[in-house]
Amino acid sequence: MKVLVPIKRVIDYNVKARVKADNSDVDLTNVKMAMNPFCEIAVEEAIRLKEAGSATEVIAVSIGDKACQEQLRTALALGADKAIHIETDATLESLHVAKLLAKLVEQENPELVILGKQSIDADNNQTGQMLGALTKRGQGTFASKLVIEGSNAVVTREVDGGLQTVSLALPAIVTTDLRLNEPRYATLPNIMKAKRKPLDVIAADSLGVDLTPRVELVRVDEPAKREAGVIVESVEELVTKLKTEAKVIS
Amino acid sequence: MSVLVIAEHENGVLKPETAKVITAAVKIGGDVDVLVAGSNVAAAADSVAGIAGVTSVKLVDDANFEHQLAENTADLVVELAGGYSHILASASTTGKNILPRVAALLDKSQISEIIDVVDADTFKRPIYAGNAIATVKSLESQKVITVRASAFDAAGEQGPVSVESLSNGAANSLSRFVGVEQTESERPELTAAPVIISGGRGMQNGDNFALLNGVADKLGAAIGASRAAVDAGFVPNDMQVGQTGKIVAPDLYIAVGISGAIQHLAGMKDSKVIVAINKDPEAPIFQVADYGLVADLFDVLPELEQAL
Ligand SMILES: Cc1cc2nc3c(=O)[nH]c(=O)nc-3n(C[C@H](O)[C@H](O)[C@H](O)COP(=O)(O)OP(=O)(O)OC[C@H]3O[C@@H](n4cnc5c(N)ncnc54)[C@H](O)[C@@H]3O)c2cc1C
């Protein structure tokens, strides 16, 4: 079974994004970048499938400018066999990404595509589901457990009311939630080895997908600031303040 | 203009998110039709018919939609989508699962988790865990949108409009429902509760969450948790509040033994009043708290229960 893992380069999750002074966007100059945490979980799951003998090959793919090769090297160091960089400088929406990935799925024909459920920059939570639609495959989103049973992928999903389990006919699409696994760290020898693993570059333009923007970013603002609060000295004072000042309890 | 809203329901009962999504739909303007798709959901459709602003209700009551799986539900929505300028669903796990599939089938770029309607084409949505608010304008002829329910008030009531029954038996050959583990609780739902008390890693174990029960009982509160508390297995996943859990905005949010990581704040910082109880005076949660109490939670919780 071939597994394709799309990954995204994003702001490091420990860094708080700042808005540009001209309100045109978020300022990412000199900001620490990393692999999107949900994509790390996707890479880890694919590698575990390979270690367990259910996957034969793990291919990592990233779409973006040259810099995302850094994250592809990380994926290779973690255990992916091969990487594909779909190169473009365009700002892409989830639909564009899903369309480019659908082209790659056509070429590579993986039985399983594992993606992060959302990227922590745009917070869209769309790409996996869109890829499912475009490739006419079943989808197991927000996965906290994935088991391959013959020609099916059995996925336990984190849903608002608890956990739901679905069985998908392979080939299928899975998106990861936080509790699917705990990603490993790349070891130094594996980082060195990764430098010799294949990383192919494909120009996004060559895939025949129309990348014209369909959503315009009008402006970006800081969220409303909360007024500074007070430190209370005791439970008694807290309860009094909640009753008489904030009036949220009676 | 006309808006199609996908209703959210569970066990045949309409979920409160729907009335909030309808508020967003009314703000967009035009007719508001609501699709109720599921199995044994006639009562949910009747509830929708009485929500102010709804023009008509479309009911698809069919065993094929019992679990609202994305694959055939998306096909159904696409079939009914013709003529609508906007298609809206709640940014719940159900809406997030289905709507992007709909969008791709319609060849439309989706706008996720809007918190405000500026005009029929322009919306506000949080990005970067809520550290920035983007104003985006959709250039699509048909707009596919999920709505952050906590950002909108619930629409009121009206004399019921008509419910139109449609037959559609679209089967699903791609995925099959296997089972569900539903968390049973007597408490109000997190996304609907006026008061929430949440516990973090500071609670130390699952048993200690019982300390929150007493306070929650007195306040009629729902109980939430941080990711760390869920990851450690103290409580189930559906209690997680945050960027990747539930987004809440109650009148009162009490954070107990929670440090206040940006991902947690993303899920609760729009609460009206925030209380933080933490023994570390430097904990970032105090920067967003209206009232902070620097103390050991194991002393505070029994005292708080007494004082209420
Ligand atoms: C991609 C991604 C998504 C995430 N999504 C979410 C999300 O949706 N929701 C979420 O919550 N987190 C999320 N996180 C995790 C987040 O970054 C933090 O790790 C998490 O919120 C920490 O939980 P905590 O505050 O309970 O634990 P900690 O940060 O360990 O804080 C525990 C706090 O308890 C206090 N404490 C300990 N003992 C006591 C005591 N006896 N009395 C009083 N106070 C005490 C400590 O002082 C400390 O401040 C996400 C992370 C990533 C990378």
- Counted by DSSP, the helix tally of chain B is 8
CATH architecture classification name of the largest domain in chain B:
3-Layer(aba) Sandwich
Distance between the termini of chain B: 50 Å
User: How is the main sheet of chain A built?
Assistant: 9 strands, mixed
Uncertain segments of chain B: none
Task: Report the span from N to C terminus of chain A.
Answer: 61 Å
Query: Which strand order spans the largest sheet of chain B, edge to edge or round the barrel?
Result: 7-11-6-1-4-5-12
Order of helices and strands of chain A: EEEEEHEHEHEHEEEEHEEEH
**What does the average pLDDT of chain B come to?**
96
Principal-axes geometry of chain A comes out as: globular
User: What's the number of domains of chain A?
Assistant: 1
Tell me the strand percentage band of chain A: 25-35%
Give the SSE map:
The complex is a heterodimer of chains A (250) and B (308).
Chain A: E1 2-7, E2 9-11, E3 18-19, E4 26-27, E5 33-35, H1 37-51, E6 57-64, H2 69-78, E7 82-87, H3 94-108, E8 112-116, H4 127-135, E9 138-149, E10 152-159, E11 162-169, E12 172-176, H5 188-194, E13 199-203, E14 215-221, E15 230-232, H6 235-244
Parallel strand pairs in A: 1-6, 1-8, 6-7, 7-13, 8-12, 9-12
Antiparallel strand pairs in A: 2-5, 3-4, 9-10, 10-11
Helix pairs in contact in A: 2-5, 3-4
Chain B: E1 2-6, E2 9-10, E3 13-14, H1 17-28, E4 31-38, H2 42-49, E5 56-61, H3 70-80, E6 86-90, H4 93-105, E7 110-114, E8 116-117, E9 122-127, E10 132-138, E11 143-147, E12 163-165, E13 175-182, E14 195-199, H5 210-219, E15 222-225, H6 227-231, E16 252-256, H7 262-268, E17 273-278, E18 291-294, H8 297-307
Parallel strand pairs in B: 1-4, 1-6, 4-5, 5-12, 6-11, 7-11, 14-15, 14-16, 16-17, 17-18
Antiparallel strand pairs in B: 2-3, 8-9, 9-10
Helix pairs in contact in B: 3-4, 5-8
Bound molecules: flavin-adenine dinucleotide.
